[in-house]
Amino acid sequence: MDTFHIVLVEPQIPQNTGNIGRLCVATDSILHLIHPLGFSVEQKELKRAGLDYWQNLQVYEWQNLKEFWEKHPINERHFFFSTKAKKLYYQADFSQGGFLYFGREDRGLDSSLAESARAYRLPMVKGIRSVNLATSVGAALYEGLRQLGSYKQWEH
To answer: Which residues belong to any copy of the tRNA/rRNA methyltransferase SpoU type domain (predicted)?
Structure first.
């Protein structure tokens, strides 16, 4: 596979999704949006956060996770990110690429995914509820790219 697919499950804030879209273009990753969304993909805040990169983004929309999983069945290349996870994100084996899942900003992923054996979290000091969705995606994605080694072709 050796590419990354960012899967946003019911994202609510257009600026976060726009920023993540821009990140996907910069890393040659693919963005999947799982409905329902908390905004329209035509919303100006989404496009503004994605700047002029949005037209270069590989983005797909899915009605729900069931529809997504019919096309991309869960296997060892599916990674779920949650503050509820026990394992840290750098413990995941991203060396073959994969699907990186992130939940909606106000409640994260469903607990069945957030507490699964394939769930990971970013380390944070005690008392902090979470970091911004786009920050979480960036940290996990760049760790994956580091493991994959594909970033080396982009260095200048």
So the answer is: 4-142
Query: Which residues are annotated as part of the binding site?
Result: 103, 122, 130
Phi, psi of 10 (to 5 degrees): 55, 50
78 bridge partner residues: 99
Determine the Cα–Cα distance for residues 7 and 104; give it in Å rounded to an integer: 11
Distance in Å from the first CA to the final CA of the chain: 25
Interstrand relation of 119-121 and 59-62 (parallel, antiparallel or unpaired): unpaired
User: Could you list the pLDDT tens digit for every one of the 156 residues in the chain?
Assistant: 578 999 999 999 988 998 999 999 999 999 999 999 998 887 676 666 555 677 889 999 999 999 999 999 999 999 999 999 999 999 999 988 999 999 999 999 999 999 899 999 999 998 888 899 999 999 999 999 999 886 666 665
